[in-house]
Amino acid sequence: MTPEKKEIRIRNAQIFKALSHPIRLHMVELLLEDERCVNDIKDLFNVTQPNISQHLNILKYSGIVNYRQQGNLRCYFLTKRDLINKIIQAVK
C-alpha cells in the first residue's frame, strides 16, 4: 500500500469514527441544513454545553466541521458537505 493510500484510509476511518455517535450524526444532519452556533445546537439536545463542545471538537478534528467566531459565539459549518451528504444518503 502506498503512503498516500494509507493516509486516505486513516482519514476516512477518522470520518467514520466521528460519525459513529448518534449525537454527532444528528449534529451533522443539522449542519447539512445550515450553519449553527453552539447554543442553537445545545438547545436541540438534552446534554450539557461542554458535552456538545466535545462532540463538535471530535467533528472538527476529523475535518468534518469548522467554525467561525461571531462575537462570543462559535458558529459551526460543514467543510465536506458533499462527501458527508453522500455518506449519509448511502446509509439511509
CATH fold category name = Arc Repressor Mutant, subunit A
For the record, the CATH architecture stands as Orthogonal Bundle
Which CATH C-level class is it? Mainly Alpha
User: Into which percentage range does the β-strand content fall?
Assistant: 15-25%
What integer value in Å does the Rg equal?
14 Å
Helix content: 55-70%
Give the overall average pLDDT: 93
Q: What's the domain count?
A: 1
Shape: globular
CATH superfamily: Winged helix-like DNA-binding domain superfamily/Winged helix DNA-binding domain
Q: How far from one another are the termini? A: 31 Å
* Unreliable runs: none
Structure report:
There is one protein chain. By secondary structure, this protein is α+β, with helices and mostly antiparallel strands. The protein has a single domain (3-91), classed as Winged helix-like DNA-binding domain superfamily/Winged helix DNA-binding domain (Arc Repressor Mutant, subunit A, Orthogonal Bundle), CATH 1.10.10.10. The chain is 64% helix and 15% strand. The chain has five helices and three strands, in the order ααβααββα. A three-stranded antiparallel β-sheet has the order 1-3-2. A hairpin with a 2-residue loop joins strand 2 and strand 3 (73-78). The model has no long low-confidence stretch (mean pLDDT 93).
